Amino acid sequence: MSLRLSTVILPVRPWHAGGRDQWVRAERLGFHTAYTYDHLSWRTFRDGPWFGAVPTLTAAAAVTDRLRLGTLVTSPNFRHPVTLAKDLMSLDDISGGRITLGIGAGGNGFDATALGQEPWTPRERADRLAEFVPLLDRLLTEGAVTHHGTFYSAEEARNIPGCVQGPRLPFAVAATGPRGMKLAARHGQAWVTTGDPKLAQDGTPEQSREALRGQLEKLDKAFADVGRDPASMEKILLTGFTPEGSAVLDSLDAFVDFAGRHQELGFTELVIHAPIPDSDFAADEAVFERIATEAPAQLNS
Q1: If you average pLDDT over residues 127-146, what whole number do you get?
Q2: Is 3 within 8 Å of 299 (Cβ atoms)?
Q3: Fewest Cβ atoms nearer than 10 Å: which of 52, 181, 239, 273?
């Protein structure tokens, strides 16, 4: 099974002070997709520059030709499916059909309260995602949509002419629980995980891989429950949150070993963070570029 290598570019650099160059470089290095986080602010970057995902991806689409672009991940925390669908349709048009939407339930970080609301419980986040994704699916495939739900409404919402990609741009659904995995099986073209968060700090790489193996087995069951072939689903690991942390970018050999072990589990795409100095994502730029250009050939030989 071949393995794709992608990157995620956090939106922390002004466009004309290094931001543009990162997206151009990602295409030059041959990455399959370059993603960005869709947050209003995030963790230790809260008090520094942080730009919006949709304008950033629009600008990235204008300076690249082949590179796929997307979010890891968008959530209902501050998005509404009607306005998001319009933005996504426009992005897909501008990029010539190169957009993937990573989408998940979100968490209880800064996004959860930025609009003045109380943080939602895990159950409510799951409930909202379960309504959000099918509605977004309809909005991107039907010319006019009316929906009156528990959390979201649409009144003759129009998205004409629709996506360049047919029947719509792909969804990469982030999920680890049974409800989210069933949602991914019904509506997703890809599934996303960061591993088991309980093992990130104190677990071992072996325990992490075992947990990921368990997640993949649950995903297979979700596919069986909805009558779909799991081989039709891309399986994406966003790296940096397993016990290995950023050490996977210490050397080409370290990355190839890590990637090969996860390829054997069944993952079809690995995503690595573009280096950011003085952060959890600090890494040697030369090693990063070497991984991008040399690792895929070693892994897919």
Answers
A1: 97
A2: yes
A3: 52
CA distance 35 to 7: 6
- Strands of 11-133 (E only): list them: 33-36, 68-74, 99-103
Cα angle 261, 263, 266 (rounded to 5 degrees) comes to 120
Q: What is the pLDDT of residue 301?
A: 83
The kind and range of the H/E element at 133 are helix 122-141
Query: Cα-atom radius of gyration of the chain, to the nearest Å?
Result: 19
> Can you say how many angstroms the Cα of residue 60 is from the centroid of all Cα atoms in its chain?
16
Angle, helix 122-141 to helix 81-95, in steps of 10 degrees: 50
pLDDT digits (tens, 9 = 90+) for 239-284: 999 999 999 999 999 999 999 999 999 999 999 999 999 999 999 9
As a whole number of angstroms, the distance between CA 270 and CA 10 comes to 16
Residue 112 CB neighbour total at 10 angstroms: 18
How far is Cα 88 from Cα 53, in angstroms, rounded to an integer? 11
In this model, does residue 1 exceed pLDDT 80? no
Q: What is the pLDDT of residue 49?
A: 97
Chain centroid to Cα 227, Å, comes to 25
